[in-house]
DNA sequence: CGAGGGCTTGAGTCCAGTCAATTACTGTGG
DNA sequence: CCACAGTAATTGACTGGACTCAAGCCCTCG
Protein backbone atom coordinates (compact mmCIF):
# COMPACT_ATOMS: atom_id res chain seq x y z
CA UNK A 1 0.00 0.00 0.00
CA UNK A 2 1.63 3.21 -1.16
CA UNK A 3 1.13 6.23 1.04
CA UNK A 4 3.06 9.51 1.28
CA UNK A 5 4.73 10.37 4.56
CA UNK A 6 2.51 13.42 5.08
CA UNK A 7 -0.56 11.24 5.51
CA UNK A 8 1.21 8.99 7.96
CA UNK A 9 2.03 12.06 9.99
CA UNK A 10 -1.54 13.31 10.03
CA UNK A 11 -2.86 10.00 11.23
CA UNK A 12 -0.17 9.28 13.79
CA UNK A 13 -1.40 8.91 17.35
CA UNK A 14 -0.78 11.40 20.11
CA UNK A 15 -0.98 8.96 22.94
CA UNK A 16 -0.93 11.57 25.67
CA UNK A 17 -4.20 13.02 24.43
CA UNK A 18 -6.08 9.76 24.05
CA UNK A 19 -7.50 9.36 27.50
CA UNK A 20 -8.97 12.81 27.31
CA UNK A 21 -11.03 12.21 24.20
CA UNK A 22 -12.16 15.78 24.09
CA UNK A 23 -8.69 16.90 23.16
CA UNK A 24 -8.86 15.30 19.76
CA UNK A 25 -9.61 17.82 17.00
CA UNK A 26 -12.10 15.51 15.31
CA UNK A 27 -14.28 15.86 18.38
CA UNK A 28 -15.57 19.19 17.14
CA UNK A 29 -17.07 17.84 13.96
CA UNK A 30 -19.89 16.09 15.86
CA UNK A 31 -20.58 13.02 13.68
CA UNK A 32 -24.12 12.61 14.99
CA UNK A 33 -25.34 15.62 16.84
CA UNK A 34 -23.42 16.34 20.02
CA UNK A 35 -23.25 12.79 21.33
CA UNK A 36 -19.47 12.58 21.92
CA UNK A 37 -19.54 15.55 24.23
CA UNK A 38 -22.18 13.91 26.35
CA UNK A 39 -20.15 10.73 26.48
CA UNK A 40 -17.18 12.64 27.66
CA UNK A 41 -19.14 14.39 30.34
CA UNK A 42 -20.66 11.07 31.32
CA UNK A 43 -17.24 9.78 32.23
CA UNK A 44 -16.77 7.30 29.41
CA UNK A 45 -13.20 8.39 28.86
CA UNK A 46 -12.11 6.81 32.12
CA UNK A 47 -13.25 3.37 30.96
CA UNK A 48 -11.21 3.09 27.77
CA UNK A 49 -7.87 1.50 26.95
CA UNK A 50 -5.79 2.57 23.98
CA UNK A 51 -4.85 0.26 21.14
CA UNK A 52 -2.62 0.77 18.08
CA UNK A 53 -3.44 -0.97 14.80
CA UNK A 54 -0.94 -0.96 11.96
CA UNK A 55 -1.98 -0.45 8.36
CA UNK A 56 -3.79 -3.43 6.80
CA UNK A 57 -3.90 -5.28 10.11
CA UNK A 58 -7.21 -6.72 11.26
CA UNK A 59 -8.61 -5.32 14.51
CA UNK A 60 -11.78 -7.42 14.56
CA UNK A 61 -12.24 -10.65 12.63
CA UNK A 62 -15.55 -11.82 11.27
CA UNK A 63 -17.17 -13.88 14.01
CA UNK A 64 -15.09 -12.47 16.85
CA UNK A 65 -16.86 -12.12 20.14
CA UNK A 66 -18.48 -8.66 20.15
CA UNK A 67 -17.40 -7.89 23.68
CA UNK A 68 -16.20 -4.32 23.26
CA UNK A 69 -17.20 -0.91 22.03
CA UNK A 70 -14.54 1.11 20.21
CA UNK A 71 -13.81 4.64 19.19
CA UNK A 72 -11.34 5.74 16.54
CA UNK A 73 -8.82 8.11 18.08
CA UNK A 74 -6.68 8.59 14.97
CA UNK A 75 -6.29 7.06 11.54
CA UNK A 76 -8.91 5.37 9.40
CA UNK A 77 -10.35 1.86 9.30
CA UNK A 78 -12.77 -0.07 7.16
CA UNK A 79 -15.70 -2.28 8.16
CA UNK A 80 -15.66 -5.18 5.71
CA UNK A 81 -18.07 -7.92 4.69
CA UNK A 82 -17.19 -10.56 2.12
CA UNK A 83 -19.49 -12.86 0.16
CA UNK A 84 -18.69 -16.54 -0.29
CA UNK A 85 -17.16 -16.01 -3.74
CA UNK A 86 -14.94 -13.13 -2.66
CA UNK A 87 -17.06 -10.12 -3.58
CA UNK A 88 -16.27 -7.51 -0.97
CA UNK A 89 -18.38 -4.75 0.52
CA UNK A 90 -17.18 -2.02 2.81
CA UNK A 91 -20.07 -1.24 5.10
CA UNK A 92 -18.53 2.01 6.27
CA UNK A 93 -15.27 3.82 6.73
CA UNK A 94 -14.36 4.58 10.33
CA UNK A 95 -12.70 7.96 10.75
CA UNK A 96 -11.39 9.72 13.84
CA UNK A 97 -14.25 10.23 16.29
CA UNK A 98 -16.40 7.38 14.99
CA UNK A 99 -17.73 4.75 17.37
CA UNK A 100 -18.01 1.13 16.28
CA UNK A 101 -18.08 -2.46 17.43
CA UNK A 102 -21.37 -2.25 19.26
CA UNK A 103 -23.80 -4.90 18.15
CA UNK A 104 -26.87 -6.63 19.41
CA UNK A 105 -25.54 -10.10 18.80
CA UNK A 106 -22.72 -11.88 20.56
CA UNK A 107 -20.51 -12.08 17.49
CA UNK A 108 -19.16 -9.60 14.99
CA UNK A 109 -20.87 -9.72 11.58
CA UNK A 110 -17.99 -7.96 9.82
CA UNK A 111 -14.24 -7.49 9.98
CA UNK A 112 -12.54 -4.22 10.90
CA UNK A 113 -9.17 -3.48 9.26
CA UNK A 114 -6.88 -0.48 9.47
CA UNK A 115 -6.48 1.52 6.25
CA UNK A 116 -3.51 3.42 7.70
CA UNK A 117 -1.74 3.11 11.04
CA UNK A 118 -4.49 3.94 13.52
CA UNK A 119 -5.29 4.20 17.20
CA UNK A 120 -8.55 3.13 18.74
CA UNK A 121 -9.90 3.32 22.28
CA UNK A 122 -11.56 0.17 23.50
CA UNK A 123 -14.34 0.11 26.09
CA UNK A 124 -15.58 -3.05 27.71
CA UNK A 125 -19.18 -3.79 26.92
CA UNK A 126 -19.89 -4.44 30.56
CA UNK A 127 -18.43 -1.09 31.55
CA UNK A 128 -20.50 0.80 29.01
CA UNK A 129 -23.68 -1.01 29.95
CA UNK A 130 -23.01 -0.27 33.61
CA UNK A 131 -22.52 3.38 32.75
CA UNK A 132 -25.82 3.43 30.89
CA UNK A 133 -27.63 1.83 33.78
CA UNK A 134 -26.24 4.38 36.23
CA UNK A 135 -26.65 7.38 33.94
CA UNK A 136 -29.79 7.59 31.78
CA UNK A 137 -28.35 10.59 29.95
CA UNK A 138 -25.46 8.48 28.65
CA UNK A 139 -27.94 5.87 27.50
CA UNK A 140 -29.99 8.41 25.63
CA UNK A 141 -26.84 9.72 23.97
CA UNK A 142 -25.88 6.27 22.82
CA UNK A 143 -29.38 5.98 21.40
CA UNK A 144 -28.94 9.21 19.48
CA UNK A 145 -25.59 7.93 18.18
CA UNK A 146 -27.32 4.81 16.90
CA UNK A 147 -30.10 6.84 15.30
CA UNK A 148 -27.42 8.71 13.42
CA UNK A 149 -25.78 5.46 12.30
CA UNK A 150 -29.11 4.13 11.16
CA UNK A 151 -29.97 7.18 9.10
CA UNK A 152 -26.48 7.16 7.55
CA UNK A 153 -26.96 3.52 6.62
CA UNK A 154 -30.31 4.35 5.03
CA UNK A 155 -28.74 7.19 3.09
CA UNK A 156 -26.14 4.76 1.71
CA UNK A 157 -28.91 2.32 0.82
CA UNK A 158 -30.52 5.02 -1.29
CA UNK A 159 -27.20 5.76 -3.00
CA UNK A 160 -26.46 2.10 -3.71
CA UNK A 161 -29.95 1.38 -4.92
CA UNK A 162 -30.80 4.38 -7.02
CA UNK A 163 -27.81 6.59 -7.78
CA UNK A 164 -25.50 6.53 -10.81
CA UNK A 165 -21.73 6.23 -10.62
CA UNK A 166 -21.14 10.00 -10.72
CA UNK A 167 -23.80 10.65 -8.11
CA UNK A 168 -22.32 8.06 -5.78
CA UNK A 169 -18.79 9.37 -6.10
CA UNK A 170 -19.91 12.98 -5.69
CA UNK A 171 -21.94 12.14 -2.57
CA UNK A 172 -19.02 10.18 -1.18
CA UNK A 173 -16.58 13.04 -1.71
CA UNK A 174 -18.91 15.49 0.03
CA UNK A 175 -19.25 13.08 2.93
CA UNK A 176 -15.50 12.61 3.18
CA UNK A 177 -14.93 16.36 2.98
CA UNK A 178 -16.95 16.66 6.19
CA UNK A 179 -15.24 13.72 7.84
CA UNK A 180 -11.62 14.32 6.84
CA UNK A 181 -10.98 18.03 6.54
CA UNK A 182 -9.00 19.16 9.53
CA UNK A 183 -7.72 22.48 8.29
CA UNK A 184 -9.53 23.53 5.15
CA UNK A 185 -13.06 22.44 4.48
CA UNK A 186 -12.62 21.80 0.77
CA UNK A 187 -9.20 20.16 0.64
CA UNK A 188 -8.64 16.84 2.31
CA UNK A 189 -6.79 13.53 2.38
CA UNK A 190 -8.57 10.40 1.18
CA UNK A 191 -6.63 7.64 2.94
CA UNK A 192 -8.37 4.67 1.31
CA UNK A 193 -7.53 3.08 -2.03
CA UNK A 194 -9.70 3.31 -5.14
CA UNK A 195 -10.61 -0.33 -4.61
CA UNK A 196 -11.80 0.44 -1.09
CA UNK A 197 -13.94 3.27 -2.42
CA UNK A 198 -15.29 1.00 -5.13
CA UNK A 199 -16.20 -1.70 -2.62
CA UNK A 200 -17.95 0.92 -0.52
CA UNK A 201 -19.94 2.40 -3.41
CA UNK A 202 -20.80 -0.87 -5.14
CA UNK A 203 -18.66 -0.26 -8.22
CA UNK A 204 -15.22 -1.28 -9.57
CA UNK A 205 -11.97 0.58 -9.03
CA UNK A 206 -11.83 1.31 -12.78
CA UNK A 207 -15.19 3.05 -12.66
CA UNK A 208 -14.21 5.01 -9.56
CA UNK A 209 -11.05 6.12 -11.31
CA UNK A 210 -12.85 7.09 -14.50
CA UNK A 211 -15.55 8.95 -12.58
CA UNK A 212 -13.06 10.97 -10.55
CA UNK A 213 -11.14 11.78 -13.73
CA UNK A 214 -14.40 12.98 -15.24
CA UNK A 215 -15.08 15.29 -12.29
CA UNK A 216 -11.51 16.57 -12.53
CA UNK A 217 -11.86 17.29 -16.26
CA UNK A 218 -15.10 19.16 -15.49
CA UNK A 219 -13.14 21.38 -13.04
CA UNK A 220 -15.37 20.29 -10.17
CA UNK A 221 -12.52 18.81 -8.16
CA UNK A 222 -8.75 18.72 -8.35
CA UNK A 223 -6.52 15.75 -7.51
CA UNK A 224 -3.09 17.17 -6.62
CA UNK A 225 -2.23 13.69 -5.36
CA UNK A 226 -4.00 10.32 -5.63
CA UNK A 227 -4.97 10.56 -1.99
CA UNK A 228 -5.61 14.28 -1.86
CA UNK A 229 -8.84 15.87 -3.09
CA UNK A 230 -9.60 19.57 -3.48
CA UNK A 231 -13.16 20.65 -4.12
CA UNK A 232 -13.04 23.45 -6.67
CA UNK A 233 -16.77 23.98 -7.12
CA UNK A 234 -18.83 22.72 -4.21
CA UNK A 235 -22.15 23.72 -5.77
CA UNK A 236 -21.39 21.74 -8.90
CA UNK A 237 -20.35 18.76 -6.78
CA UNK A 238 -23.60 18.97 -4.83
CA UNK A 239 -25.50 19.17 -8.09
CA UNK A 240 -23.69 16.05 -9.31
CA UNK A 241 -24.51 14.31 -6.01
CA UNK A 242 -28.22 15.06 -6.59
CA UNK B 1 -54.10 -1.27 -6.65
CA UNK B 2 -55.57 -4.70 -7.22
CA UNK B 3 -55.70 -6.98 -4.20
CA UNK B 4 -57.74 -10.13 -3.59
CA UNK B 5 -60.15 -10.16 -0.68
CA UNK B 6 -58.24 -12.89 1.15
CA UNK B 7 -55.28 -10.59 1.73
CA UNK B 8 -57.53 -7.84 2.99
CA UNK B 9 -58.89 -10.28 5.51
CA UNK B 10 -55.48 -11.38 6.72
CA UNK B 11 -54.37 -7.82 7.27
CA UNK B 12 -57.57 -6.54 8.83
CA UNK B 13 -57.19 -5.18 12.36
CA UNK B 14 -58.52 -6.87 15.45
CA UNK B 15 -58.94 -3.76 17.50
CA UNK B 16 -59.73 -5.54 20.72
CA UNK B 17 -56.28 -7.15 20.76
CA UNK B 18 -54.26 -4.06 19.99
CA UNK B 19 -53.71 -2.71 23.45
CA UNK B 20 -52.37 -6.04 24.55
CA UNK B 21 -49.58 -6.23 22.00
CA UNK B 22 -48.59 -9.67 23.20
CA UNK B 23 -51.78 -11.11 21.82
CA UNK B 24 -50.78 -10.45 18.24
CA UNK B 25 -49.53 -13.59 16.51
CA UNK B 26 -46.62 -11.74 14.87
CA UNK B 27 -45.25 -11.15 18.33
CA UNK B 28 -43.83 -14.62 18.44
CA UNK B 29 -41.55 -14.16 15.48
CA UNK B 30 -39.20 -11.86 17.43
CA UNK B 31 -37.98 -9.43 14.73
CA UNK B 32 -34.81 -8.60 16.66
CA UNK B 33 -34.15 -10.92 19.51
CA UNK B 34 -36.79 -10.87 22.22
CA UNK B 35 -37.14 -7.12 22.45
CA UNK B 36 -40.94 -6.87 22.09
CA UNK B 37 -41.51 -9.10 25.10
CA UNK B 38 -39.37 -6.83 27.23
CA UNK B 39 -41.25 -3.81 25.98
CA UNK B 40 -44.49 -5.42 26.91
CA UNK B 41 -43.31 -6.33 30.35
CA UNK B 42 -41.93 -2.82 30.72
CA UNK B 43 -45.43 -1.44 30.39
CA UNK B 44 -45.11 0.13 26.97
CA UNK B 45 -48.49 -1.18 25.91
CA UNK B 46 -50.28 1.20 28.24
CA UNK B 47 -48.75 4.21 26.47
CA UNK B 48 -49.97 3.53 22.95
CA UNK B 49 -52.97 4.72 20.96
CA UNK B 50 -54.30 2.81 17.98
CA UNK B 51 -54.47 4.25 14.48
CA UNK B 52 -55.90 2.86 11.23
CA UNK B 53 -54.28 3.69 7.89
CA UNK B 54 -56.03 2.83 4.66
CA UNK B 55 -54.17 1.40 1.68
CA UNK B 56 -51.95 3.92 -0.14
CA UNK B 57 -52.57 6.60 2.48
CA UNK B 58 -49.60 8.40 3.96
CA UNK B 59 -49.04 7.97 7.69
CA UNK B 60 -45.92 10.12 7.94
CA UNK B 61 -44.90 12.72 5.38
CA UNK B 62 -41.32 13.60 4.59
CA UNK B 63 -40.34 16.38 6.97
CA UNK B 64 -43.09 15.71 9.50
CA UNK B 65 -42.15 16.27 13.09
CA UNK B 66 -40.68 13.02 14.41
CA UNK B 67 -42.62 13.19 17.65
CA UNK B 68 -43.80 9.60 17.94
CA UNK B 69 -42.66 6.01 17.96
CA UNK B 70 -44.87 3.50 16.16
CA UNK B 71 -45.44 -0.19 15.98
CA UNK B 72 -47.24 -2.05 13.20
CA UNK B 73 -50.13 -4.00 14.67
CA UNK B 74 -51.49 -5.36 11.40
CA UNK B 75 -50.99 -4.82 7.69
CA UNK B 76 -47.89 -3.68 5.85
CA UNK B 77 -46.36 -0.28 5.17
CA UNK B 78 -43.42 1.10 3.21
CA UNK B 79 -40.76 3.59 4.27
CA UNK B 80 -40.12 5.73 1.18
CA UNK B 81 -37.45 8.18 0.08
CA UNK B 82 -37.61 10.01 -3.25
CA UNK B 83 -34.84 11.79 -5.15
CA UNK B 84 -35.40 15.19 -6.76
CA UNK B 85 -36.06 13.68 -10.20
CA UNK B 86 -38.56 11.13 -8.93
CA UNK B 87 -36.37 8.07 -8.48
CA UNK B 88 -37.86 6.21 -5.52
CA UNK B 89 -36.26 4.02 -2.90
CA UNK B 90 -38.07 1.95 -0.31
CA UNK B 91 -35.83 1.91 2.74
CA UNK B 92 -37.71 -0.96 4.32
CA UNK B 93 -41.04 -2.69 4.46
CA UNK B 94 -42.80 -2.49 7.80
CA UNK B 95 -44.61 -5.68 8.72
CA UNK B 96 -46.68 -6.61 11.77
CA UNK B 97 -44.51 -6.34 14.86
CA UNK B 98 -42.02 -3.87 13.40
CA UNK B 99 -41.21 -0.66 15.23
CA UNK B 100 -40.57 2.55 13.31
CA UNK B 101 -40.66 6.32 13.44
CA UNK B 102 -37.89 6.70 15.99
CA UNK B 103 -35.19 9.03 14.82
CA UNK B 104 -32.45 11.15 16.26
CA UNK B 105 -33.47 14.28 14.43
CA UNK B 106 -36.57 16.38 14.93
CA UNK B 107 -37.98 15.68 11.48
CA UNK B 108 -38.78 12.58 9.50
CA UNK B 109 -36.31 11.82 6.67
CA UNK B 110 -38.75 9.56 4.83
CA UNK B 111 -42.44 9.04 4.22
CA UNK B 112 -44.41 6.07 5.55
CA UNK B 113 -47.31 4.82 3.42
CA UNK B 114 -49.68 1.90 3.86
CA UNK B 115 -49.36 -0.89 1.31
CA UNK B 116 -52.65 -2.44 2.45
CA UNK B 117 -55.15 -1.31 5.07
CA UNK B 118 -53.12 -1.35 8.27
CA UNK B 119 -53.22 -0.58 11.96
CA UNK B 120 -50.39 0.98 13.90
CA UNK B 121 -49.94 1.77 17.57
CA UNK B 122 -48.49 5.20 18.26
CA UNK B 123 -46.44 6.03 21.34
CA UNK B 124 -45.52 9.55 22.30
CA UNK B 125 -41.80 10.17 22.20
CA UNK B 126 -41.95 11.79 25.58
CA UNK B 127 -43.71 8.82 27.08
CA UNK B 128 -41.17 6.37 25.71
CA UNK B 129 -38.25 8.47 26.86
CA UNK B 130 -39.76 8.73 30.30
CA UNK B 131 -40.19 4.97 30.37
CA UNK B 132 -36.53 4.51 29.41
CA UNK B 133 -35.39 6.89 32.11
CA UNK B 134 -37.41 5.05 34.75
CA UNK B 135 -36.56 1.57 33.54
CA UNK B 136 -33.02 0.87 32.31
CA UNK B 137 -34.08 -2.56 31.06
CA UNK B 138 -36.52 -0.95 28.62
CA UNK B 139 -33.74 1.31 27.41
CA UNK B 140 -31.40 -1.56 26.83
CA UNK B 141 -34.12 -3.37 24.91
CA UNK B 142 -34.64 -0.38 22.67
CA UNK B 143 -30.90 -0.38 22.08
CA UNK B 144 -30.98 -4.01 21.06
CA UNK B 145 -33.87 -3.23 18.72
CA UNK B 146 -31.77 -0.52 17.09
CA UNK B 147 -28.77 -2.81 16.79
CA UNK B 148 -31.00 -5.20 14.91
CA UNK B 149 -32.22 -2.43 12.60
CA UNK B 150 -28.67 -1.35 11.96
CA UNK B 151 -27.45 -4.81 11.06
CA UNK B 152 -30.46 -5.30 8.78
CA UNK B 153 -29.65 -2.03 7.05
CA UNK B 154 -26.05 -3.14 6.58
CA UNK B 155 -27.21 -6.44 5.15
CA UNK B 156 -29.32 -4.55 2.61
CA UNK B 157 -26.34 -2.35 1.78
CA UNK B 158 -24.37 -5.46 0.92
CA UNK B 159 -27.19 -6.73 -1.26
CA UNK B 160 -27.64 -3.42 -3.10
CA UNK B 161 -23.92 -2.94 -3.58
CA UNK B 162 -22.71 -6.37 -4.53
CA UNK B 163 -25.49 -8.80 -5.37
CA UNK B 164 -27.00 -9.62 -8.75
CA UNK B 165 -30.71 -9.41 -9.56
CA UNK B 166 -31.37 -13.09 -8.78
CA UNK B 167 -29.43 -12.92 -5.53
CA UNK B 168 -31.35 -9.85 -4.39
CA UNK B 169 -34.74 -11.32 -5.18
CA UNK B 170 -33.86 -14.66 -3.57
CA UNK B 171 -32.61 -12.94 -0.39
CA UNK B 172 -35.71 -10.79 -0.32
CA UNK B 173 -38.04 -13.75 -0.63
CA UNK B 174 -36.27 -15.57 2.21
CA UNK B 175 -36.55 -12.46 4.35
CA UNK B 176 -40.24 -12.09 3.56
CA UNK B 177 -40.84 -15.76 4.25
CA UNK B 178 -39.68 -15.14 7.80
CA UNK B 179 -41.65 -11.91 8.15
CA UNK B 180 -44.93 -12.90 6.53
CA UNK B 181 -45.58 -16.57 7.07
CA UNK B 182 -48.26 -16.93 9.68
CA UNK B 183 -49.36 -20.49 9.11
CA UNK B 184 -46.88 -22.29 6.90
CA UNK B 185 -43.23 -21.30 6.85
CA UNK B 186 -42.75 -21.67 3.09
CA UNK B 187 -45.97 -20.26 1.72
CA UNK B 188 -46.81 -16.63 2.25
CA UNK B 189 -48.51 -13.49 0.99
CA UNK B 190 -46.41 -10.74 -0.55
CA UNK B 191 -48.63 -7.68 -0.12
CA UNK B 192 -46.45 -5.18 -2.01
CA UNK B 193 -46.44 -4.57 -5.77
CA UNK B 194 -43.59 -5.56 -8.09
CA UNK B 195 -42.73 -1.87 -8.36
CA UNK B 196 -42.43 -1.61 -4.58
CA UNK B 197 -40.13 -4.64 -4.54
CA UNK B 198 -38.08 -3.12 -7.36
CA UNK B 199 -37.72 0.18 -5.52
CA UNK B 200 -36.61 -1.73 -2.44
CA UNK B 201 -34.04 -3.86 -4.28
CA UNK B 202 -32.68 -1.14 -6.56
CA UNK B 203 -34.06 -2.62 -9.79
CA UNK B 204 -37.05 -2.11 -12.13
CA UNK B 205 -40.39 -3.87 -11.90
CA UNK B 206 -39.63 -5.58 -15.24
CA UNK B 207 -36.45 -7.12 -13.86
CA UNK B 208 -38.22 -8.22 -10.66
CA UNK B 209 -40.89 -9.87 -12.75
CA UNK B 210 -38.40 -11.58 -15.05
CA UNK B 211 -36.31 -12.78 -12.11
CA UNK B 212 -39.26 -14.26 -10.26
CA UNK B 213 -40.39 -15.96 -13.47
CA UNK B 214 -36.89 -17.40 -13.79
CA UNK B 215 -37.03 -18.81 -10.23
CA UNK B 216 -40.46 -20.22 -10.97
CA UNK B 217 -39.26 -21.91 -14.18
CA UNK B 218 -36.37 -23.40 -12.19
CA UNK B 219 -38.92 -24.95 -9.78
CA UNK B 220 -37.41 -23.05 -6.85
CA UNK B 221 -40.61 -21.20 -6.06
CA UNK B 222 -44.21 -21.29 -7.14
CA UNK B 223 -46.48 -18.30 -7.71
CA UNK B 224 -50.04 -19.54 -7.32
CA UNK B 225 -51.10 -15.90 -7.28
CA UNK B 226 -49.23 -12.67 -8.02
CA UNK B 227 -49.15 -11.87 -4.32
CA UNK B 228 -48.66 -15.39 -3.06
CA UNK B 229 -45.30 -17.14 -3.02
CA UNK B 230 -44.59 -20.76 -2.19
CA UNK B 231 -41.02 -21.85 -1.65
CA UNK B 232 -40.61 -25.25 -3.28
CA UNK B 233 -36.89 -25.74 -2.68
CA UNK B 234 -35.57 -23.67 0.18
CA UNK B 235 -31.99 -24.93 -0.22
CA UNK B 236 -31.91 -23.89 -3.84
CA UNK B 237 -33.34 -20.50 -2.93
CA UNK B 238 -30.67 -20.06 -0.27
CA UNK B 239 -28.04 -21.04 -2.79
CA UNK B 240 -29.42 -18.45 -5.21
CA UNK B 241 -29.34 -15.86 -2.42
CA UNK B 242 -25.65 -16.59 -1.84
C1' DC C 1 -68.67 -5.96 -20.06
C1' DG C 2 -65.44 -2.34 -20.66
C1' DA C 3 -61.79 0.47 -18.39
C1' DG C 4 -57.73 0.77 -15.99
C1' DG C 5 -53.89 -0.65 -13.49
C1' DG C 6 -50.51 -3.97 -12.51
C1' DC C 7 -47.92 -7.77 -14.37
C1' DT C 8 -45.47 -10.19 -17.93
C1' DT C 9 -42.75 -10.71 -21.95
C1' DG C 10 -39.94 -9.19 -25.94
C1' DA C 11 -36.52 -6.24 -28.52
C1' DG C 12 -33.03 -3.02 -28.50
C1' DT C 13 -29.86 0.21 -25.83
C1' DC C 14 -26.62 1.77 -22.55
C1' DC C 15 -24.03 2.19 -18.33
C1' DA C 16 -20.91 0.01 -15.79
C1' DG C 17 -18.15 -4.32 -15.60
C1' DT C 18 -14.35 -7.18 -17.53
C1' DC C 19 -10.08 -7.80 -19.56
C1' DA C 20 -5.81 -5.94 -20.82
C1' DA C 21 -2.03 -2.69 -21.45
C1' DT C 22 0.38 1.25 -19.69
C1' DT C 23 1.82 4.53 -16.37
C1' DA C 24 2.96 6.21 -11.79
C1' DC C 25 4.49 5.48 -7.16
C1' DT C 26 6.84 3.66 -3.29
C1' DG C 27 9.47 0.92 -0.79
C1' DT C 28 13.66 -2.16 -1.00
C1' DG C 29 18.15 -3.45 -1.56
C1' DG C 30 22.46 -2.83 -3.82
C1' DC D 1 21.57 7.66 -4.46
C1' DC D 2 19.81 4.82 -8.02
C1' DA D 3 17.82 0.63 -10.13
C1' DC D 4 14.36 -2.59 -9.59
C1' DA D 5 10.16 -4.87 -8.24
C1' DG D 6 5.61 -4.81 -6.98
C1' DT D 7 1.34 -2.67 -6.38
C1' DA D 8 -2.05 0.91 -7.27
C1' DA D 9 -4.04 3.86 -10.55
C1' DT D 10 -5.28 5.08 -15.04
C1' DT D 11 -6.91 4.45 -19.66
C1' DG D 12 -8.80 1.92 -23.66
C1' DA D 13 -11.60 -1.65 -26.08
C1' DC D 14 -15.09 -4.72 -25.68
C1' DT D 15 -18.94 -7.25 -23.28
C1' DG D 16 -22.97 -8.03 -20.80
C1' DG D 17 -26.68 -7.58 -17.37
C1' DA D 18 -30.06 -4.67 -16.26
C1' DC D 19 -32.76 -0.67 -18.07
C1' DT D 20 -35.94 1.43 -21.45
C1' DC D 21 -39.54 1.30 -24.45
C1' DA D 22 -43.39 -1.09 -26.10
C1' DA D 23 -46.99 -4.46 -26.70
C1' DG D 24 -50.09 -7.71 -24.79
C1' DC D 25 -52.20 -10.17 -20.85
C1' DC D 26 -54.71 -10.69 -16.62
C1' DC D 27 -57.28 -9.37 -12.85
C1' DT D 28 -60.33 -6.37 -10.40
C1' DC D 29 -63.68 -3.18 -10.04
C1' DG D 30 -67.17 -0.10 -11.41
Please give a structural write-up.
The structure is a homodimer of 242-residue chains. In chain A, 41% of the residues lie in helices and 23% in strands. With 242 residues, chain A is an alpha+beta fold. The first copy, chain A, folds into 2 domains: 5-154, Jelly Rolls, CATH 2.60.120.10; 163-241, Orthogonal Bundle (Arc Repressor Mutant, subunit A). A 4-stranded antiparallel sheet of chain A has the order 1-8-3-6. In chain A, strands 2-7-4-5 form a 4-stranded antiparallel sheet. In chain A, strand 4 and strand 5 (88-95) form a beta hairpin. In chain A, helix 6 (165-180) crosses helix 9 and helix 7 packs across helix 8. Chain A is globular. The model of chain A is unreliable at 1-42 (pLDDT under 50). Chains A and B meet through strand 5, helix 4, helix 5 and helix 7 of A and strand 5, helix 4, helix 5 and helix 7 of B.
* Biggest sheet features of chain A: 4 strands, antiparallel
Helix count, DSSP H or I runs of 4 or more residues of chain A: 9
| Bulk shape of chain A | globular
Q: What would you say the CATH architecture of the largest domain in chain A is?
A: Sandwich
Largest interface: A-B, 45 and 45 residues
CATH topology of the largest domain in chain A: Jelly Rolls
Helix and strand element order of chain A: HHHEEEEEEEEHHHEHHEEH
Instruction: Tell me the structural class of chain A.
Output: alpha+beta
Which stretches of chain A are poorly predicted, pLDDT < 50 over at least 5 residues? 1-42
What is the CATH C level class of the largest domain in chain A, in words? Answer: Mainly Beta
What kind of oligomer do you see? Answer: homodimer
Number of strands of chain A: 11
Amino acid sequence: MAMPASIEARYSPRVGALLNLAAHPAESRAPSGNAPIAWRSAGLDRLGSTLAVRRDRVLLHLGDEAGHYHKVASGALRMVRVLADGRRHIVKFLMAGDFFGFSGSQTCAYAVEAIVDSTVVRYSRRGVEGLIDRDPVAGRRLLSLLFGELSDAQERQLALGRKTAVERVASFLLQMADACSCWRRDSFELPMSRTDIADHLGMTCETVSRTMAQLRRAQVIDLPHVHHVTILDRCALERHAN
